[in-house]
Specification:
The structure holds 2 protein chains of 2 kinds.
Chain A lengths: L1 E5 L2 E3 L5 E3 L4 E3 L3 E3 L1 H17 L2 E7 L5 H10 L3 E6 L8 H15 L3 E5 L10 H9 L2 E12 L2 E7 L5 E7 L2 E5 L14 H8 L3 E4 L37 H8 L16 H16 L1
Parallel strand pairs in A: 1-6, 1-8, 6-7, 7-13, 8-12, 9-12
Antiparallel strand pairs in A: 2-5, 3-4, 9-10, 10-11
Helix pairs in contact in A: 2-5, 3-4
Chain B lengths: L1 H31 L6 H29 L10 H13 L8 H25 L9 H23 L15 H27 L11 H17 L7 H11 L19 H6 L14 H7 L7 H5 L1 H4 L6 H14 L3 H4 L2 H5 L6 H5 L6 H14 L5 H13 L12 H4 L4 E2 L5 E7 L1 H6 L1 H16 L4 E3 L9 H6 L2 H16 L2 E7 L2 H10 L9 E3 H11 L11 E4 L13 H9 L4 E2 L29 H10 L5 E4 L2 H14 L6 E4 H9 L2
Parallel strand pairs in B: 1-3, 2-3, 2-4, 4-5, 6-7, 6-8, 8-9
Helix pairs in contact in B: 1-2, 2-7, 2-10, 3-8, 4-5, 5-6, 6-7, 8-10, 25-26, 27-28
The chains are: A alpha/beta, B mainly alpha.
Chain lengths: ~280, ~650
Amino acid sequence: MNIVVCLKQVLDPALVEFDIATSELRAPRWRLDQLDCVALEQALRCRSAAGAAVTVITVGPARTEEILRHGLTSGADRAIRVGGDAVEDADAWVTAGILAAAVRRLEPDLVLCGARSSDSGGECLGAYLAAALDVAFIGRVVWLEPRGAAIAAHSREESGWREELHAALPVVAAVETALNEPRYVPMLSRVYREGARRSIETWDVDELDVEAEVLVPRVVALDLTQPKPRTKVGVKVTGLSMADKLKLMRGGRGGGQQRELLKGNPAESASRIVAKLDEWLA
Amino acid sequence: MSGSRTSRRTLAAAVVVAALTGALAYGRYHTASAWFAGGWEVALIVVTVAAGLAFGFGVYRRVAVWVAGSGRLSVAGLGHRVARVVRVALLQRKVLRDRVAGAMHFALSWCFGLLLLWYTAQSVGLDVKGVPDVLLDIGYAVLGTAALTALVLRFVSDRRALSPSPRDARHPLRRRRDVAVIVLLALVSASYFADRAAGGSIASAPTTEWVRFVHVLTISAFLALIPYTKLFHVVTAPLSVFFAAHDAQRVPPLPFDLSRDSMETLVAQDGSFGLSDVHDLPLFRLLSLDACTECGRCTAVCPAAQSEKPLSPMSVVMKLRDAALDHDDLWDVFSREEVLSCTTCGRCVAECPVQIEHVGMITDLRRDLVYEGAMADGHQRTMQRLVEDANPYGQPAATRGAWALSDGFEEAKDGETYDYLYWLGCAASFDDRAQTVARTVHRLLTRAGLRVAILGSRERCTGDPARRVGDEALFQQLALANIESIRDVQFGAIITHCPHCFNTVGNEYRLLGADFEVRHHTEVLAELVASGAIELKHEIDQSVTFHDPCYLGRHNGVFDAPRALLDAVPSLDLVEMARSRDKSACCGAGGGQMWLGEDWGEKINVMRVQDAEQTGSRTVVTACPFCIAMLEEGAQVTDAQDPLQVKDVAELIAEAAEQ
């Protein structure tokens, strides 16, 4: 199986600052968009399960090679950057057009990308790309499994519903955070070193078969405004266990409810639970 | 080429064997006639030569493993090393920490040593007739008694130290060999007395030849078995004690140095930066593996083993030793869970009578896990947070220390000089319980007239969790960034209330060329109290107990400062736990356990809370934010209605000084 993962470099959302005077966004560092990390992880998992070649690709200037390097050191087999003058002010439409031309050459079975980027958040690149390639598209993917020449996936719907979809390959799938937890690849580990030794290919838009009208952005950003400051409410928490505290700090739920650890054999514990329930219901 | 090398080796071996045979036969021939005549004389020579050759081959087999190891034997700090041999090997101070077994071993080893000296001397024809029979009688009697005691300890008493858990590698075989050696020792003594009973003196010709010959046989068998059994430690223990690294427990060496090595060369290298093949171990470590006496002291005190986790430090040593001889693949004999269970508390190293450094080797194995991408999920998540946020809690790096700055802490500025740079650490930066400790320490210091600053958002995790789980590159990245930030500031010394930061910045940054003076807050506060800068005027009429954090006490030798502080509080009564000071038990957080998120076996923190509760005190005092977190959790589990109070030393001092 041939898997292509489309990556996007974004300003680190955790560190981004808005300059109100110049309407500019700034951040001390760029990073690979979080949802693209999920797409990359899924590609690597499909590879170890089914045996496949994973190619990472991005459209952008030389600085974007950093995220391709991340893809390689995470375990991707091949990395391609599509550069050229046309990529500078590309919107999702233009990017999808360029990507389609490049991806077509790779003849992939599965193309993965993030459902939306953390900066522009248009949620349309995957669909544009599928249309341009004239292949099936599955969006908001929270579960995915290759099945021979087809793919099974769960697409997230409103209110927690999930839709199970099957499609014949090739398919473009746009993924959600819930799909997996991206791996951590330690620097200088075996996989990291192998990836660091591979070179990044550079393709130029001019060499690709892209029609001129595709390279005209459909959307132009005119202005940026600062979001209204939100009030944060802090809650002082005391008397929680270390594990609950850690969970709370990481945004999960923990604490709050009263907890009690029951000791003893299952029968004793069960009867104590029943007693507790009676007490609460009374 | 290799063919001629092999034949040259065979030739050399043949020459050595022939020379050894000749020397032994000749030596024995000269002295045998004093004991035996006729056929007995020939038998004696044959037995001696066989035992000598077996001994020689056994030693050769194991020395060959050592010399294949990496690095050289270091004798730096010769005086220190000699003193250690006297203390640990000759006076057996560590063996004697276990009183009964220790006394048994002390008597056994010295009698055995002196008798062996006598036996060898008379075997090679020296005139040792001056030694009176009664001395030999006493020697053999002590030997026999000690051997019987050893058997009693194994079979009658239920001592854990000598009967480690069934998890131990190749357990049944090990036990059989262990017992066989002691039975043989008892037979040496018994056959001596049989000979004496037959009417002779061992120094003169026997009255009943076959009885004397049995005695000779037992001694010869004993000598021959030395390099094949745990008895080999009589040779290797002094060597291991002598050559062990000085501070290896604290400072596992760097596998590479990001401050010097270029990324290109490191990336181009093949092979693991961790321990993937036992033969890559340094020479002194391979030697120390052969010194293991399988006494089980390490496993008996290991918090992971005590809490039924899949780790036995003794088993780690035995597996490595066997792998060195049998060329096992390490991950065929080790499990990931086993290697990940270690809290790096260092109790095993502190107890080991032959100075084996388990923790360093376990860390080395973890480095190989990291290298192979087999890091535990919990550790992966934590390392990812360290990469992105420079703290293991996953809080935004930019908010680090923000609470402190709005609470009156000063951020270090250019051109200013401070008495102390206060290293807040991740716990005090993001955990509110540790923040109260930091606030207290800061208040005590500033009221004593000291100028203290923090690094604010320029401070990052020291890299301690990364180093402990084996992610050396991440550790070095964090460390190098911190070293740069620290060097921007003018200060007298660094102060921290976190023993992990204390250890990492103080000891391990030295490996990267940064020599900072780091002091733990208990040391600084003890000085301030002693000098009167902090006056403890209020009585605290309470009984408390003190829990030694591993990285403060055992790893850095700070046992007295916190106790001096507690002693200085009027009316306060310090009741020590059964396991305290260098025998202190771990809280369970160290070695990356805090971030592992696995629930194997029992909870170590609950076990430690039970230790504290046995003192009768309702308050346990400690000096580490992670110990506080673990003990508070353990106290909740033990008794949710009336949990044991957990305090930092500084909080008690503040109570006594301010109230």
